[in-house]
Specification:
The chain is of the alpha/beta class.
């Protein structure tokens, strides 16, 4: 069986809910590992056949913990995961495009193959209280996450990528 690795970081729950929704759907299709960025490393990337990266955007950039994951893993797997499929999801308060661009640039350096356009779920959190509050994403928000997990899992299992 193929393995899908979903790596995420979440401080207020939005990205965690997105990653969990994708993982739940992917598990119906293939072996799926859901891990936080803190607990993920190069060996996890090398073991998996495809990836979903899910991160919040903080201050117009990917969250520091997610950036640390990429920093720790970049060189140890460089040249060893080329061509593997990936997708990404971003949870943002107002925009998310810079985080999306950063992840895409890192994936390009690894020569990963994007299999879906990245998508951003916007919470519209603008005040300090809203930004720091626990997020509760709607079923409508989570539907594309499930669709992504199912599609990537099925595609990996069928050898479509």
């Amino acid at each position: 069986m193929a393995e899908l690795l979903i790596v995420y970081h979440s401080k207020t729950g939005g990205s965690r809910q997105m990653a969990q929704a994708a993982a739940e759907a992917a598990r119906d299709e293939t072996t799926t590992t859901l891990q936080t960025a803190e607990e993920s490393g190069p060996d996890d990337l090398l073991r998996a056949d495809g990836y979903i990266f899910c991160a919040p955007e903080n201050l117009a950039a990917i969250a520091g913990v997610m950036k640390d994951f990429f920093d720790r893993c970049y060189y140890p797997v460089l040249g060893r995961i080329e061509g593997r499929p990936y997708a990404q999801m971003v949870c943002a308060g107002s925009d998310g495009t810079n985080a999306q661009k950063q992840i895409a640039r890192i994936a390009q350096g690894w020569r990963l193959k994007a299999v879906q356009e990245p998508f951003i779920i916007c919470t519209h959190a603008q005040t300090q209280e809203q930004i720091l509050a626990e997020k509760h994403l709607s079923e409508e928000d989570l539907a594309p996450c499930r669709e992504l997990g199912q599609a990537l899992g099925a595609g990996l299992e069928m050898g479509a990528f």
